[in-house]
Amino acid sequence: MTVAIVGAGLGGLALARVLHMHGVDAVVYEREPSRGARAQGGMLDLHSGTGQRALREAGLIDQFHAIARPEGQDLRLLEPDGTLLLQEETPDDAPLERPEVDRAELRTLLLDSVPECAVRWGHAFEHAEDGLLHFTDGSSATYDLLVGADGANSRVRALLTDARPARTGQSVVELGIPDVDRTHPDLAAMVGARQLLGAR
Ligand SMILES: Cc1cc2nc3c(=O)[nH]c(=O)nc-3n(C[C@H](O)[C@H](O)[C@H](O)COP(=O)(O)OP(=O)(O)OC[C@H]3O[C@@H](n4cnc5c(N)ncnc54)[C@H](O)[C@@H]3O)c2cc1C
Question: Is the pTM of this model over 0.85?
Fold first, then answer.
């Protein structure tokens, strides 16, 4: 059986890894041209019962611990004027319930865990019918089982349901300041190891 997975994000790659571990051929089709084509974004916290469980199933939990940041379990909530609403400090020996990890490092870990030929870069899925996947460049590929792991605006999902994601009207702005301890020590002290800055 050939399993086609559309999307080389965290979900698609984790599934491909587990299938390969169990001897099932899985090919991941990703629209980005290469693994380094796009910055992957910031930090994720991976909880013990969900994201970490997937990595355990994938035999990658030790490698995850090597790149995880336990200090990221600290949490502060502040008003826009800096008033502290909530502060949770995690002791150094606390269990890794929700450590942070760099999304790009996690994706690299997953990418390196599957055979290189299992990921086909530059394949933007367009539609599927009669056991054939069609890509926007006109190429096609066969499959027995199709898995949509192509993110929030999944095209594969449209094969199953008319449901569409809808905007909630709320947006989240995430920003990072490189070398913040040196360039903006006042901000670094306010933020701590990890922070959510509340804005209303
Ligand atoms: C700001 C933010 C913060 C988050 N923080 C956390 C957190 O702290 N902890 C946590 O567990 N989760 C967090 N999440 C959720 C997490 O990012 C998602 O659950 C996870 O990325 C979903 O993985 P995925 O593989 O399903 O999709 P994605 O990671 O979105 O990957 C989808 C992949 O499909 C590819 N693709 C899309 N369309 C096509 C196409 N037509 N053809 C081929 N390829 C295609 C994309 O290029 C991408 O590589 C956060 C999400 C956001 C937006």
Answer: yes
